[in-house]
């Protein structure tokens, strides 16, 4: 059974993007790039909300064909281009990126069916509203936060309007640039 994993870069104060959606504060370097490739190879599908889908769709297909794209970014672009992309949006009329499918709403039974498939795990990048809704529905199996050593003071919070959820620490990793990866799973009440 495949898992649904939230994977996000966050500020120390819990924001996944600046107020205007910017992510120029992400602390990336060669070590991070290698890690991003390693992680991306383990995913069989990506879940997006409207905004994150449009951000990724405007960048990665272009990066794949741009000769100035770094080899690391080109590898990530190729992986993302090939895998399934699931987009939740009430306002988009269609999605045109390779292997993309549009859904108007999150239906728990459909998500559970996706999880039953014998494929690689499903990841959610960004998409705060999607993360929040799927967290409240109990559909997330793992949370991976790459905490960047920065306090934004304001921005788009990773979690708001969330029911209380206890997590169990699975693993940590410290990067040379000060980033810290924290991996958790929800503690399910028996």
Describe it for me?
- The protein is of the alpha/beta class and 190 residues long.
- It is built from five helices and ten strands; from the N terminus they run E-E-H-E-H-H-E-E-H-E-H-E-E-E-E.
- The chain has helices at residues 30-41, 50-65, 71-82, 108-116, 128-136, and strands spanning 4-11, 15-17, 43-49, 84-88, 100-103, 121-124, 142-148, 156-157, 167-174, 180-186.
- The strands form two sheets. The protein has an eight-stranded mixed beta sheet with strand order 5-4-3-6-1-7-10-9. Strands 2-8 form a two-stranded antiparallel sheet.
- The radius of gyration is 16 Å and the shape is globular.
- The model has no long low-confidence stretch (mean pLDDT 92).
Summarize the structure.
This protein is of the alpha/beta class and 190 residues long. The chain is 31% helix and 29% strand.
Layout of helices and strands:
Elements (H helix, E strand, L loop, with lengths): L3 E8 L3 E3 L12 H12 L1 E7 H16 L5 H12 L1 E5 L11 E4 L4 H9 L4 E4 L3 H9 L5 E7 L7 E2 L9 E8 L5 E7 L4
Parallel strand pairs: 1-6, 1-7, 3-4, 3-6, 4-5
Antiparallel strand pairs: 2-8, 7-10, 9-10
Features:
single chain, 10 strands, two-stranded antiparallel sheet, 190 residues, alpha/beta
Low-confidence runs of at least 5 consecutive residues: none
Whole-number radius of gyration?
16 Å
Largest sheet: 8 strands, mixed
Tally of helical runs: 5
- Residue-averaged pLDDT, rounded? 92
Number of strands: 10
Secondary-structure element series: EEHEHHEEHEHEEEE
Proportion of helical residues: 25-40%
Strand content: 25-35%
Taken from the alpha-carbon principal axes, the silhouette is: globular
Distance between the termini: 20 Å
- Structural class of the secondary structure composition? alpha/beta
User: What is the strand arrangement across the widest sheet?
Assistant: 5-4-3-6-1-7-10-9
């Amino acid at each position: 059974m495949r898992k649904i994993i939230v994977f996000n870069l966050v500020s120390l104060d819990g924001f996944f993007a600046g107020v205007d959606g910017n992510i120029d504060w992400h602390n990336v370097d060669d070590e991070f790039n290698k890690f991003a490739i390693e992680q991306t190879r383990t995913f069989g599908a990506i879940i997006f909300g409207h905004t994150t889908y449009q951000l990724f769709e405007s960048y990665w297909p272009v990066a794949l064909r741009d000769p100035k794209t770094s080899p690391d970014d080109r590898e990530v672009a190729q992986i993302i281009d090939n895998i399934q992309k699931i987009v939740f949006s009430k306002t988009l009329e269609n999605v045109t990126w390779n292997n993309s499918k549009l859904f108007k709403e999150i239906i728990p039974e459909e998500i559970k069916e996706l999880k039953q498939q014998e494929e690689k795990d499903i990841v959610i990048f960004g998409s705060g509203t999607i993360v929040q809704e799927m967290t409240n529905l109990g559909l997330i199996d793992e949370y991976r936060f790459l905490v960047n050593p920065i306090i934004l003071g304001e921005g788009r919070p990773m979690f708001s309007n969330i029911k209380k959820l206890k997590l169990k620490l699975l693993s940590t990793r410290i990067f040379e640039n000060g980033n810290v990866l924290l991996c958790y799973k929800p503690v399910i009440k028996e």
